[in-house]
């Protein structure tokens, strides 16, 4: 199936590694040119190089912090100069603070502020500045990575749940406002996606990680490509009548009917 995004310009935030990198690869495999944005110059340049080599599209790396207004302004200027605008915006974000804790143990306001900055403020910062570029084109896609916790809060994850829910509400407002400009706005809510690059620093012990697989009817973790594929489909022409939605990618872990 041709997803209709060949030659489109896609920005993926927080894309020097992990999910952001894999989503950028997946969009590039469908022919989209990609802009990568994160703080580590070496990693970003390596990802841009591998994307160009493997998929034959343009991949531009821009170093910056999505929580910092001037860095995002510089990113917007680069997209205007290099691509004349933007079609697809994937809002991947840094993780909430580690280690995860019980809600009653989350008494350090610095951790709350970090969680807010990492998961919600950065999203608002990027959307605020990037949206005029997308609406100007009369067609666009905005996709935020949130968490399955927005539907069924997971133990020890309040620093994630609270702000992912905020992103979900923000995206719903946005969907209602920009639909008339031909722009769809959706969330992808993952859980239990394998993160091999973080194996040594995972929040879970090997025994806990094994137990987590049993949380789904499928009895396994999800793969990076299963997550990236859903994001890429939401960026497609065929997904044009889906907006204001949250698509779960959690192997059936959340046990509700809807
Ligand atoms: N795996 C799952 O099942 C799951 C479930 C729910 C939610 N999530 C969420 O999915 C997201 C991605 O997960 P992941 O495993 O890929 O995370 P990760 O490996 O920690 O990667 C995070 C990315 O964010 C970038 N980054 C960090 N701070 C940044 C900033 N201030 N501005 C711009 N970029 C920044 C990092 O690059 P630099 O350090 O170079 O900036 C890196 O590229 C996270 O928010 C995670 O909580 C994952």
TrEMBL record:
Protein name: 3-oxoacyl-ACP reductase
Pfam families: adh_short_C2
Annotated TM spans: none
Family, per entry: Belongs to the short-chain dehydrogenases/reductases (SDR) family.
Domain of life: Bacteria
